[in-house]
């Protein structure tokens, strides 16, 4: 019996790569692909696949919102998140998701996930009510995770020396865009974010604290160590990271900084 699978991702290369990997497996059949959350909901509702591979950030409905909709409709499909947004990984594991894969998905890692899926489906086939109940509870917890606690910002995930680190927004000193890579710097480390743009990452942060002082830099105004005059009434900000990094302030942001600091 084949594992009937739906892939939902708004990025075509990611869908194609997953499809290619799954096509190599004799017991997996991709029965549908969706490009957004709403399309995925309709597809899963109509096809009732055994397995749904969902991106987290999709137009229409996010992956977590999609799962909440599936639970509300009492649609039973094993769910695996496949995403570049690793900041949700810890939460997903805490709520006992089937699995959480980071892009680019490695074949060996996908194989491990499918072992888990096969075991769960075998439990279903045997009528293992305890396993089914646990999975249903897990899906409800995933759906509930969409309802974030007000005033509790998510940690920001960054890649540092090949490892994944979670940092609280209060610990961030500044964020920079360097050669199309968004880099987050704290007082003790620096690492790459999976966000594609500064705007994307800034949308997750408190705008009263994190200022876009330059087209390539966002600073935590509580982490400015020195303000150094530069050129004609412009400034350089010396930050409180281990390197004492200097960040230029653009002409358009200089007035805001003067007003805030009564300069």
CATH architecture of the largest domain: 3-Layer(aba) Sandwich
If you average the pLDDT, what whole number results? Answer: 83
Number of domains: 2
How much of the sequence is in beta strands?
25-35%
Radius of gyration, whole Å: 22 Å
What pattern of helices and strands is seen along the backbone? Answer: EHEHEHEHEHHEEEEEHEEEEEH
Question: Please, what is the CATH homologous superfamily of the largest domain?
Answer: Response regulator
Q: Give the strand tally.
A: 15
CATH names the topology of the largest domain as: Rossmann fold
Q: Separation of termini?
A: 72 Å
Strand order of the largest sheet: 2-1-3-4-5
How would the global form be characterised? elongated
Count of alpha and pi helical runs: 8
Roughly what percent helix? 25-40%
Indicate the structural class.
alpha/beta
Low-confidence stretches: 146-152
Record the SSE blueprint.
Elements: E1 3-8, H1 12-23, E2 28-34, H2 37-47, E3 51-54, H3 63-72, E4 78-83, H4 89-94, E5 99-102, H5 107-125, H6 129-145, E6 156-160, E7 163-167, E8 172-178, E9 181-186, E10 190-192, H7 198-202, E11 210-214, E12 217-220, E13 224-230, E14 234-239, E15 246-248, H8 251-261
Parallel strand pairs: 1-2, 1-3, 3-4, 4-5
Antiparallel strand pairs: 6-7, 8-9, 8-12, 9-10, 11-12, 13-14, 14-15
Short description:
With 263 residues, the protein is of the alpha/beta class. 35% of the residues lie in helices and 30% in strands. It has 2 domains: 3-145, Rossmann fold; 156-261, OB fold (Dihydrolipoamide Acetyltransferase, E2P) (Beta Barrel), CATH 2.40.50.1020.
């Amino acid at each position: 019996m084949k594992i009937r699978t739906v892939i939902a991702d708004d990025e075509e290369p990611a869908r194609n790569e997953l499809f290619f990997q799954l096509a190599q497996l004799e017991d997996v059949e991709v029965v549908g692909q969706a490009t957004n959350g709403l399309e995925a909901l309709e597809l899963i509702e109509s096809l009732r696949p055994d397995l749904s591979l969902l991106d987290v950030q999709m137009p229409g409905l996010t992956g977590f919102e999609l799962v909440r909709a599936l639970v509300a409709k009492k649609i039973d499909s094993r769910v695996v998140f496949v995403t570049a947004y690793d900041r949700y990984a810890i939460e997903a594991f805490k709520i006992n998701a089937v699995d959480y894969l980071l892009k680019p998905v490695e074949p060996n890692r996908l194989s491990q996930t499918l072992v888990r899926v096969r075991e769960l489906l075998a439990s279903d086939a045997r009528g293992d009510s305890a396993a089914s109940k646990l999975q249903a509870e897990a899906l409800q917890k995933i759906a509930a995770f969409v309802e974030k606690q007000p005033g509790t910002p998510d940690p920001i995930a960054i890649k540092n020396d090949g490892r994944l680190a979670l940092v609280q927004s209060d610990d961030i000193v500044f964020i920079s865009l360097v050669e199309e890579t968004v880099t987050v710097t704290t007082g003790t480390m620096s690492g790459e974010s999976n966000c594609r743009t500064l705007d994307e990452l800034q949308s997750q942060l408190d705008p009263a604290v994190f200022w876009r002082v330059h087209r390539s830099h966002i600073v935590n105004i509580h982490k400015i160590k020195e303000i150094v005059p530069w050129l004609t009434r412009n400034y350089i900000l010396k930050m409180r990271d281990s390197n004492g990094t200097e960040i230029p302030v653009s002409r358009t942001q200089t007035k805001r900084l003067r007003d805030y600091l009564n300069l």
